[in-house]
Amino acid sequence: MKKPTRKWTLDIIHHSHTDIGYTERQEKIERFHVHFIKQALQILSSIKSGEKSNWKGFKWTCETFWPVERFLAQATDDEAQVFQAYVRSGDISLSGTYLNMTELIDADLLARMIKRSTNYANSIGVTLDSAMTADINGYSWGFVQCLLDAGIHNLLSCIHTHHGMFPLGQKQTPFWWEAPSGQRLLVWNGDHYNLGNDLGLALNALHSYIIRDEFHTPPIVNNHWEVMEARIMRYLSQLEKEGYPFDFAPVALSGIIVDNAPPNGSIMDLFHQWNEVHGDVVTIQMTTLSDLFAKLRQQTDIEIPVYRGDWPDWWSDGVASTAAHTQLFRDAQRNFQLLVQLDPVNSIIPEAAVREMEEQLTLYAEHTWGYSHSITEPWNPMVQSLGARKEAYAANASRLVHTAIDAVLESKGEAMLAPGRSMRYKVINPFQHDIRVIARMYLDYWELPLIRNGFEVREEGRTDVVIVHQVSQVSRGTEVSILITLMAAEERTFRLVPHSAENGKTTSSFALTGSDRVKDIRDFRSEDESFCVTQNSVESAHVLISWEAGKGIVSWIDKRSGINLIDITAPHSAFAPVYEVTPVKDHGLIRKTRTRMGRNRKGMNVQRHVGRLVHALEVERGPLWITIEQEYESVGMSHYVVRLTVYAHEPRVDVAIRLHKDSVWEPENVYIPLPFSLPHAQLWLEKAGALMRPGIDQIPGTGLDFYCIQNGLGWIGQEQGLAIAMPDTPLVQLGPLVFGDRLLQGQQNRNEVRAIYSWILNNFWETNFKATLGGFYEFRYSVYWGNDLNTAEKAIAQCRLSNQRVINYRAW
Fold it and tell me: What are the residues whose beta carbons fall under 8 Å from the beta carbon of 257, sequence distance 6 or more?
């Protein structure tokens, strides 16, 4: 048996991977984790009493704070005191992460949840300076700032390369991660969270997930010691061969081979046995996060590199497998921010209620997307119930947040449904800056007779001014919209005043429209109309959008500059559906087909279809906007309509995509092309808490294919910018859709212009994504452009304003 040449120490982080809903019902997993902490206390107490003195050296790391919080909520006073004592003594290690998150969570909520752990540590006199994650392969650039702001200075990342990959082209290596502010976090870019089980560090809990060799390794084997010796010696010898500079290696370990695993005190028997036999070459010991990083910081003779930029998460794509509830979550998260602005000191909504909203939002954004057999057994009651519970987190968050906002607005004078309500509306700017927005005032269907003969919109205090409005028919009633400017935090009140008006219609001598009502010739004279529409175009004072039968939108001309905002070299037309399906020969291969996809998220035999534009017509026109509806034919969808709303007062187009997706078990993807650009422009994305340039502001070796963003993206040119707000769909795909070798940061052609897509739906994962994407959806986008969007900050601020609603309500 070949042995390593230097004297080594294996520093073991003994933990339980927190994976809520993958192995069991979510509430059962909560119960498990509470009992895992109780078991750790029992182990430590038995060591302290001398009953299990042979387990001396045992340490337990709470991978996330959520189990600790759940334990403390149920613990007796004695249990809570014993737990605190072991945290203070260093026998139990806390982590500064609440859960293992996707990038759905925004920076504000992320910071709130991180501070729960540090606040608890501070309350018991413990300095919490370290965090760990497991099973996720990336974090927004803003995540590092959230950790630093909470006093967390170290991060252990236990990556998982299933459909993902580690950065830097190397595992088991540290680096300084520089935040946008210039502050630095010390990161250990580690290996899989079950590497210790592959190395044989837990009896009856053997694994062969990362290490594939000649050994047959079910969890329980008769030759465990042989496997352990061979694998540890080979592993450390390989690190030496690779030029690994340290004489210690951190290794994560589970007590049994399952996610959500209990602590295992008998591990120490194996460690002591090993140290007696091989301690002269390799010593094995349990450690804590703080002790691990303290040791690393003492290695002053080894230079640790510094990297600055985003670390895109390979595992955020699950959000598109439950797209309708992801949309619900994003709306709830935005409105939670609004609630905090409206009631910053909890004068109306109790703090406990706010904490419950935070938890429901966080549980949806947590990285587990369903039961382990969601794809292979989609009919399984466990699959159905766990999926419903996951989606319920978004629904519960939405209910709680909107209920709270309703309470705040009622305290501000919102009028409840009652006979004789006046048609009086309050509009509030929730931002600390001026805004120019459309305010919408709703009338129930039974109120329409009150304004049957016409009405005017007037502002209280300025009743001599009639405000231009537009009327739209919406579900169960009518919406009256006005364009207004509001100063920071300004409140204004408007009334609908019944007013007789002649609304007769006649013909025009200049409108080149046939008696067949088909508009396929442009007028010689516009008659001062705000909009001009033909079968193939729509035009306002700001934009001329043209489309072609079959292909879709072919140009988007900014009339101020004359620039076509569409990249004519892009492979697909704006907002036309792009559908992919990977055929599966028989349903017995449903899982295996997906496994083989690797990081492509599709098979080599993928079939790609692009929708065909077959019809376009005007569906609404008024003084503020006009709406054009385009109908497409598409494989995989029985209905696909694009609604373009072009505004008269500003360079802005709202886009609503309405579709009915067929139910398909095979792996699928649906993309919406966003082929916009500007000359000599730079693309910017907004991640949670940070702005970044894809392919530039990234850690080397990170993914380039897709990004999970918050409010939108922006193209910033030399004199103007273009912003696309994306309230519903967080995933942005960049580059070609074809199957092939995936490139990482540092491998790409920096001068290549990559096509942009909104990745709205997928079900490619072989374990716990939702198996079918079938159903009805609406996804919204807003496109803005102009000289006032000439910085990334301004462009993303416009996206944020577009996505966040202005507050308006019926008032007494």
Answer: 194, 197, 205, 206, 207, 219
Say if residues 145 and 690 touch (Cβ distance below 8 Å).
yes
* Cβ–Cβ < 8 Å for 32, 20: no
- Which amino acid is residue 173, in one-letter code? T
Mean pLDDT by runs of 10 across the 812 residues of the chain is 93 97 94 98 97 97 98 97 98 98 97 98 97 96 97 97 95 97 98 97 95 94 97 98 97 96 97 98 98 97 97 95 98 97 95 98 96 95 95 98 97 93 94 92 91 91 90 93 95 91 59 68 65 96 97 97 96 98 93 94 97 97 97 98 97 98 97 96 96 98 97 95 98 96 94 92 94 97 97 97 91 92
What are phi and psi for residue 55, nearest 5 degrees? -100, 15
Are 170 and 189 in contact by the 8 Å Cβ rule? The answer is yes
Characterize 585-613 residue by residue with b for buried, 16 or more Cβ atoms within 10 angstroms of its Cβ, and e for exposed: eeeeebbebbeebeebbbbeebebebbbb
Sheet strand arrangement including 469-474 = 435-444, 477-486, 469-474
In 3-state terms, what secondary structure has residue 522?
Answer: coil
Contact 673, 755 (CB under 8 A): yes
Sheet holding 173-178, edge to edge: 130-134, 154-158, 184-189, 173-178, 306-308
3-state secondary structure (DSSP) of residue 716? strand
pLDDT tens digits for range 641-692: 999 999 999 999 999 999 999 999 999 999 999 999 999 999 999 999 999 9
- Residue 310: phi, psi to the nearest 5? -80, 155
Distance of CA 560 to the CA centre of its chain: 36
Q: Note the pLDDT tens digit of each residue in 238-259.
A: 999 999 999 999 999 999 999 9
Which residue intervals of 1-65 are DSSP H helices? 26-49
Distance, in Å, from the CA atom of 802 to the CA atom of 605, rounded to the nearest integer, reads 40
Which residues are CB-contacts of 762 (< 8 A; sequence separation ≥ 6)? 317, 320, 321, 601, 667, 668, 669, 670, 769, 773
Q: Give the whole-angstrom CA distance, residue 768 versus residue 760.
A: 18
pLDDT at residue number 499: 83
Between CA 677 and CA 566 the distance in angstroms is: 6
**Distance in angstroms (rounded) separating the CA atoms of residues 697 and 26:** 37
The count of other CB atoms within 10 Å of the CB of residue 88 is 13
- DSSP H or E stretch at residue 87: helix 77-89
The C-alpha atoms of residue 572 and residue 259 are separated, in whole angstroms, by 42
- For the chain, helix (H) and strand (E) counts, in that order, are 14, 37
What is the rounded CA–CA span in Å between residue 189 and residue 201?
21
Can you read off the two tokens belonging to residue 50?
Answer: 């001398």
In the chain, the amino acid numbered 156 is: L
- pLDDT tens profile 554-611: 999 999 999 999 999 999 999 999 999 999 999 899 999 999 999 999 999 999 999 9
Instruction: Label residue 474 exposed, middle or buried (CB < 10 Å: 0-12, 13-18, 19+).
Output: exposed
Q: How many other CB atoms are there within 10 angstroms of residue 351's CB atom? A: 9
Edge to edge, the sheet with strand 248-253 lists 248-253, 8-14, 282-286
* Distance, CA of 574 to CA of 207 (rounded, Å): 48
* CA 200 to the chain's CA centroid: 36
Q: Strands, DSSP E only, in 652-728?
A: 652-661, 668-673, 682-687, 690-692, 706-708, 712-716, 721-725
